[in-house]
Amino acid sequence: MARIRSKNTKPELAVRSLVHRMGYRFRIHRKDLPGSPDLVFPSLKKAIFIHGCFWHAHDGCSTANKPKTRASYWNEKFARNKQRDRRNASALRRAGWSVATIWECEAKSADFVCKKVSRFLSSTKGRE
Ligand SMILES: [Zn+2]
């Protein structure tokens, strides 16, 4: 099966240009890191994933409506995706990275993204 996350999606591009305008330098899709995070800040050892609400089954999110047909097929698929997300995030944390997720629905608000990103990037919690 093809990869689950498509690259350069609309929310991803929106977050990228916003973070860029905030003055942060980052790399994208570092393939040498677990899950190849969407935004990577090497000097801060921080990584951000931008998750589509549908594929990553955002809990309680209205844009993550599950398909009505073939429910068990989809539930299994979503469970696998979530499990993979968790595995990637914990592998990164074990390697000393801080990890944040921005959901597709959150990415619609520039204000929200700004606040979340600056809080995440300025925090020193969990760093040596
Ligand atoms: Zn969502």
Summary, kept brief:
The chain has 128 residues and is of the alpha+beta class.
Could you please describe the fold and organization of this structure?
The chain has 128 residues and is an alpha+beta fold. The protein has one domain: VSR Endonuclease (Endonuclease, Chain A, 3-Layer(aba) Sandwich). The protein is 38% helix and 12% strand. A three-stranded mixed beta sheet has the order 1-2-3, sandwiched between helices. The longest helix has 24 residues, at 71-94. Zinc ion binds at residues 53, 58, 61, 63-64, 103-105.
Please describe the structure with a list of short key phrases separated by commas or semicolons.
globular; 3 strands; 3 helices; Endonuclease, Chain A; alpha+beta; 12% strand; three-stranded mixed sheet
Blueprint of the fold:
Blueprint: H1 10-21, E1 39-41, E2 46-51, H2 71-94, E3 98-103, H3 110-122
Parallel strand pairs: 2-3
Antiparallel strand pairs: 1-2
Helix pairs in contact: 1-3
Bound molecules: zinc ion.
Q: What portion of residues belong to β-strands? A: 5-15%
CATH topology: Endonuclease, Chain A
CATH homologous superfamily title:
VSR Endonuclease
Small molecules bound in the structure, each named once? zinc ion
DSSP summary: helix tally: 3
Global geometry:
globular
